[in-house]
């Protein structure tokens, strides 16, 4: 079912209106959040009423079409009220990652010219207060909590400040005056109008605001629903990835606005497992690292006791793999295998599935490459993981796994309505150009830069025409900077061009596939590969804290020694080396890690080492740890 398949000229604010007109009664639950020990339910009617109150307040305070409205908060119903209120009068959602520094927040507020800013916590308000007076366009700060007086006393803010509840009251008082104008402006919003500015997370250089239109978002949702037809209006989504990122915005929020699905907001990443059991979701958008952690925990739990329990667990996984492979080959499992699978499901798989709530149709993984073995592991359990690919600049989805056609290690079939080309990195000639209609399950291409043209491509970068021209060429092709190919008709990602290492002998090494090979180890949390213009590959490796702690009986204080960034313990190094040697056999000799440093704790956003989407900032890390990296090449260390 796709309720927007044939509706033309749709915009983001019209999606919810279509739901209450054609799919659900207005009093049906749309949003849920945990308040103390209970899940609070918020209807479509309440959501739309609050959106109108927000719009009324905006209009009464001079907000007009095209003005930028800022969002600095975690996922919540308040985010939805504010967004819907902004979108329906043509204002532009400019979301800011809550994890950004004050300097980065200030840059985005000033660059975009945000006029009103929604702030979600006292901690975030303290950040804003420090930089608000530097942002000339900011006229109002709105907070989602009431007790902000203690934070703002003894401060002099140029922008006014009030709570969201006060804003809703004021908007309600003026609603009769502005109701007709809200309706007129909602209908005047065009698909070509700007819906959002989403700032790139900036692994290099200054963040840039990608200009995404209503057309970008709505067409992306429309075609994703065509590609994944199992989503229905009765589904429940559990949302935990930040709505400030384009992936969650489209794959959860906009999809649910289009379908009428329910959104339950997780309390936190730490409480996600508990929330899954409570909410019993059908769909979750996630990132590979979460799936890797679930995989590692399940393997550890199933095998750590040893003996009969471990044998049954490993037997069940083997049966699950055989059952999956038969199904994926388009064949029907035999009686014996089907019986074995039923036993494996009852003894092992059902216990893991119960922890997801027991109703999961699929999880969709995006934001980075999912290691093939992790996808296959979930497939063996009977939990479907769909992979998608795209960037902020592509709204974001360019490709997504078809529900009934899984090719592990790929990011799925090109969505309808766009072209994806593979361009030779050296000659700039297109190796192939593929579309949804040209799909051939037997087609495999050579590798090159991935380029895209069509409805998903952004309007450009905000106030940056020169940077826009560097990535969108005269023929309308957006150059992603990612390297990949088509494999069995599906898109397969290798790495970012800028991440490519060229060793001293001219061999090209893409870090991500190599790092993912080593990440199969239960002992390793992260791998940062080094080797550009060097004779061999080295790495900064972070061990899995939990596994390391249990293996060597280490106290928590071991990880709090901030003055000792790296671990020098010989036994721990040997313990890691065991798995480095094991997994090195899967790699070419020039890709293998020869020497390494063990980092006590993972790279962090607070230190500016990774982006909000958890991608390492290569230049920042290489500069910060320059002396350590040089040590790795000061001696020809044998591994």
Q: Quote the beta fraction.
A: 15-25%
| Rg, nearest Å | 25 Å
CATH topology-level fold name of the domain at 12-189 and 230-282? Rossmann fold
Largest sheet: 9 strands, mixed
Counted by DSSP, the helix tally is 21
The general outline is globular
What is the CATH homologous superfamily assignment of the domain at 12-189 and 230-282?
ANL, N-terminal domain
Structural class category: alpha/beta
Count of extended strands: 28
- The helix content, as a percent range, equals 25-40%
Classified by CATH, the class of the domain at 12-189 and 230-282 is Alpha Beta
- Separation, N- and C-terminal Cα atoms: 56 Å
Poorly predicted runs: none
Mean pLDDT across every amino acid position: 94
- Cross-sheet strand order for the largest sheet: 2-1-11-10-12-13-14-15-16
CATH architecture assignment name of the domain at 12-189 and 230-282:
3-Layer(aba) Sandwich
Keywords: ATP-binding, Nucleotide-binding
Pfam families: AMP-binding (PF00501), AMP-binding_C_3 (PF23562)
InterPro entries: AMP-binding_CS, AMP-dep_synth/lig_dom, ANL_N_sf
Domain AMP-dependent synthetase/ligase: 25-462
């Amino acid at each position: 079912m796709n309720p927007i398949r044939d509706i033309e000229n749709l915009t983001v604010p019209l999606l919810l209106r279509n739901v209450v007109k054609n799919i659900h009664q207005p009093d049906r639950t749309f949003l849920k959040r945990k308040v103390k020990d209970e899940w609070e339910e918020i209807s479509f009617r309440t959501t739309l009423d609050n959106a109108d109150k927000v719009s009324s307040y905006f209009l009464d305070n001079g907000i007009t079409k095209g003005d930028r409205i800022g969002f600095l908060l975690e996922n919540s119903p308040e985010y939805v009220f504010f967004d819907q209120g902004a979108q329906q009068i043509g204002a532009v959602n400019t979301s800011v990652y809550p994890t950004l520094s004050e300097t980065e927040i200030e840059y985005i507020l000033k660059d975009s010219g945000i006029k009103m800013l929604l702030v979600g916590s006292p901690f975030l308000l303290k950040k804003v207060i420090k930089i608000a007076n530097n942002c000339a366009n900011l006229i109002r700060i709105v907070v989602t909590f009431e007790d902000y007086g203690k934070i703002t006393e003894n401060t002099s803010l140029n922008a006014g400040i009030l709570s969201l509840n006060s804003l809703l009251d004021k908007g309600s008082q003026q609603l009769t005056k502005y109701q007709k104008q809200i309706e007129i402006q909602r209908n005047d919003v065009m698909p070509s109008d700007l819906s959002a500015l989403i700032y790139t997370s900036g692994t290099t250089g200054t963040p840039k605001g990608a200009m995404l239109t209503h057309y970008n978002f709505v067409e992306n949702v429309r075609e994703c629903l065509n590609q994944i037809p199992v989503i229905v209006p009765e589904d429940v989504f559990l949302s935990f990835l930040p709505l400030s990122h384009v992936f969650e915005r489209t794959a959860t929020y906009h999809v649910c606005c289009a379908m009428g699905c329910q959104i339950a907001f997780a309390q936190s990443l730490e409480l996600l497992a508990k929330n899954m059991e409570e909410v019993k979701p059908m769909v979750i958008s996630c990132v590979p690292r979460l799936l890797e952690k679930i995989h590692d925990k399940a393997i550890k739990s199933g095998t750590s006791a040893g003996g009969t329990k471990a044998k049954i667990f490993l037997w069940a996984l083997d049966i699950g793999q055989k059952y999956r492979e038969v199904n994926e080959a388009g064949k029907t499992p035999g009686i014996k295998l089907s019986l074995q699978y039923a036993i494996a499901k009852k003894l092992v798989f059902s216990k893991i599935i119960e922890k997801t709530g027991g109703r999961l149709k699929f999880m969709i993984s995006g934001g980075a490459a999912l290691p093939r073995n992790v996808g296959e592991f979930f497939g063996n359990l009977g939990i479907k993981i769909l992979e998608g690919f795209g960037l902020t600049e592509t709204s974001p989805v360019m490709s997504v796994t078809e529900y009934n056609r899984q090719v592990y290690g790929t990011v799925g079939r090109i969505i309808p309505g766009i072209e994806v080309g593979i361009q030779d990195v050296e000659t700039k000639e297109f190796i192939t150009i593929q579309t949804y209609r040209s799909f051939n399950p037997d087609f495999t291409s050579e590798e090159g830069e991935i380029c895209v043209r069509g409805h998903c491509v952004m309007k450009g970068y905000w106030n940056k025409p020169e940077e826009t021209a560097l990535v969108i060429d005269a023929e309308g092709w957006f150059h992603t900077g990612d390297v990949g190919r088509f494999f069995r008709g599906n898109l397969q990602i290798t790495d970012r061009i800028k991440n490519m290492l060229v060793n001293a002998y001219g061999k090209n090494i893409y870090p991500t596939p190599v790092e993912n090979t080593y990440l199969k180890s239960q002992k390793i949390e992260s791998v940062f590969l080094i080797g550009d213009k060097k004779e061999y590959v080295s790495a900064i490796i972070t061990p899995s804290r939990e596994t390391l702690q249990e293996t060597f009986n280490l106290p928590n204080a071991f990880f709090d020694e901030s003055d000792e960034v790296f671990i020098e313990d010989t036994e721990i190094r040997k313990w890691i080396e065991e798995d480095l040697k094991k997994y090195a056999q899967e790699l070419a000799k020039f890709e293998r890690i020869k020497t390494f440093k063990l980092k006590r704790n993972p790279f962090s956003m607070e230190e500016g080492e990774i982006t909000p989407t958890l991608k390492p900032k290569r230049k920042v890390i290489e500069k910060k740890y320059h002396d350590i990296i040089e040590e790795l090449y000061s001696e020809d260390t044998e591994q």
